């Protein structure tokens, strides 16, 4: 990470893709490799739900059903997080924006600080495979590292490779019903952002049906090129 960066020059990267495409997994790997901060509105909302804040209480039922939380709530949460000092080295937006209203709000936020989007990276996958990917996934309750029953098991069963934590969690919205609602929400409200960012000339498409490491290698190259622009 370049400590001399100012907000105006810090890279802003967006990961687009349906639930299960690997946005969270890849964002965490990019965070480690490049020192950028992963900003996941899903994580921020889950933290708000756990803390019982007003926003969390409003979001809870919508999230469990697989629908999208209101733009106002999500934009306010993202705006607060983006203003934190650790974001000045570069950010990877994971799960935001998810609607055109959010994309326009992000453009306005970045304009205020003289920042711009370096790349909006669409992780391209087959929907049919997403249900399987999501059904087997879980995370370490301590550090958030992601695992999967089939694709990525910890070296010692039940023990996190990263932090040694032993409390693994599965998400409340990783049920078959909620996943199909989430896929519908993606196609109806988020997929149009692919055209939106193509229009801004920042769209990159990355095939994301391979292994986690293969995708990370391709994505790393795309991010490196985009951050230098
Ligand atoms: P994720 O962790 O990104 O899969 O998000 C989990 C859930 O949080 C989604 O299904 C939505 O209910 C909610 N959520 C996360 N990010 C957003 C967003 N940008 N806009 C609206 N709802 C969101």
How are the elements arranged and paired?
Elements: E1 12-16, H1 23-34, E2 37-40, H2 41-51, H3 54-65, H4 71-82, E3 91-94, H5 100-113, E4 119-124, H6 127-135, E5 137-140, E6 146-148, E7 168-169, H7 176-190, H8 192-199, E8 203-207, H9 212-228
Parallel strand pairs: 1-3, 1-4, 2-3, 4-8
Antiparallel strand pairs: 5-6, 5-7
Helix pairs in contact: 1-9, 2-3, 4-5, 6-7
The protein binds adenosine monophosphate.
What would you say this structure looks like, in words?
The protein is α/β, with parallel strands linked by helices. Helices cover 48% and strands 14% of the residues. The protein contains 9 helices and 8 strands. The strands form 2 sheets. Strands 2-3-1-4-8 form a 5-stranded parallel beta sheet, with helices on both faces. A 3-stranded antiparallel beta sheet has the order 6-5-7. A hairpin with a 5-residue loop joins strand 5 (137-140) and strand 6. Bound molecules: adenosine monophosphate. Adenosine monophosphate binds at residues 19, 40-42, 45, 62-63, 66-69, 74, 95-96, 98, 102, 173, 182.
User: If helices are DSSP runs of H or I spanning 4 or more residues, what is the number of helices?
Assistant: 9
Overall, the morphology is: globular
Instruction: Characterize the largest beta sheet: strand count, sense, and whether it forms a barrel.
Output: 5 strands, parallel
In the sheet with the most strands, the strands line up as: 2-3-1-4-8
Strand content: 5-15%
Number of strands: 8
Look at the structure and give the mean pLDDT. 92
The N- to C-terminal Cα distance equals 16 Å
Q: Name the ligand types.
A: adenosine monophosphate
Query: What is the C-alpha radius of gyration, as a whole number of Å?
Result: 17 Å
Low-confidence stretches: none
Structural class: alpha/beta
User: Which sequence of SSEs, written as H and E, runs from N to C?
Assistant: EHEHHHEHEHEEEHHEH
Helicity level, as a percent range? 40-55%
